[in-house]
Design brief:
mainly alpha, about 0% strand, Four Helix Bundle (Hemerythrin (Met), subunit A), about 80% helix
C-alpha cells in the first residue's frame, strides 16, 4: 500500500512539474516572440524616421538652392513632414527644422520678387522678349541678393543634419 501511495504522490509531483515546465516554456517563448516583434517595430520606426529626416533635408536643401521657391507638391510634402516632426521628432530637431524653414521663408520674402509670368491668350506676342529679359534680370538680381543669405541657411541646414544624425544614433542605441 505504501508503494501505491508513493507512486501516486510521485506521479502527481511529476505531473505538476511537467505542467509548470510547459507553462514556463510557453511563457518564455511568448516573451521572446513579443521582444522580437517589439524589436522589429522599433527597427521599422527608426527606418521611417530616417526616411523622414532624409526627405526633410532634401527638400530644405532644394528650397535653399531655389531661393525659397518650390513646387506645390514639395511644399505639401514639407508641410506633412512638419506634422510628422511634431509627432515623432525630438524637440531639438523640431525647433531647428522650424528655424531653418522660417529662415528660408524670410529670405524668400526679402529677395526681389520675380515678375509674374504672362501667358498670352492670343497667338502673336510682341512683348515676349521684353518680358523674358525683365524676368532674367530680376532672377540675376535675386541671385545676387541671395548670396548673402545662402551661407547662413546652409549652416542652419548642416546643424539640422547633425542634430538629426545624433537623434538617429540615440534611437539606434535604444534598439535592442
Amino acid at each position: 500500500m505504501d508503494a501505491i501511495i508513493g507512486t501516486i504522490i510521485g506521479a502527481c509531483i511529476a505531473g505538476i512539474a511537467m505542467l509548470l515546465n510547459s507553462y514556463y516554456a510557453a511563457k518564455r517563448r511568448e516573451d521572446h516572440e513579443n521582444n522580437v516583434a517589439r524589436r522589429n517595430q522599433l527597427i521599422k520606426d527608426l527606418g521611417d524616421l530616417e526616411r523622414t529626416y532624409q526627405s526633410a533635408l532634401q527638400i530644405l536643401d532644394r528650397q535653399i538652392r531655389m531661393k525659397g521657391f518650390d513646387s506645390k507638391a514639395k511644399l505639401e510634402e514639407l508641410y506633412k513632414i512638419n506634422i510628422a516632426f511634431k509627432l515623432s521628432a525630438s524637440k531639438e530637431v523640431y525647433d531647428k527644422f522650424s528655424d531653418t524653414r522660417n529662415a528660408i521663408a524670410n529670405m524668400a520674402k526679402k529677395l526681389t520678387p520675380l515678375p509674374e509670368e504672362f501667358i498670352p491668350k492670343f497667338e502673336e506676342d510682341r512683348e515676349r522678349m521684353a518680358r523674358l529679359e525683365a524676368r532674367k534680370e530680376a532672377e540675376n538680381i535675386r541671385n545676387e541678393e541671395a548670396k548673402e543669405y545662402i551661407p547662413d541657411l546652409m549652416k542652419l541646414h548642416d546643424e539640422l543634419a547633425d542634430l538629426m544624425k545624433k537623434d538617429l544614433e540615440k534611437h539606434k542605441k535604444l534598439t535592442p
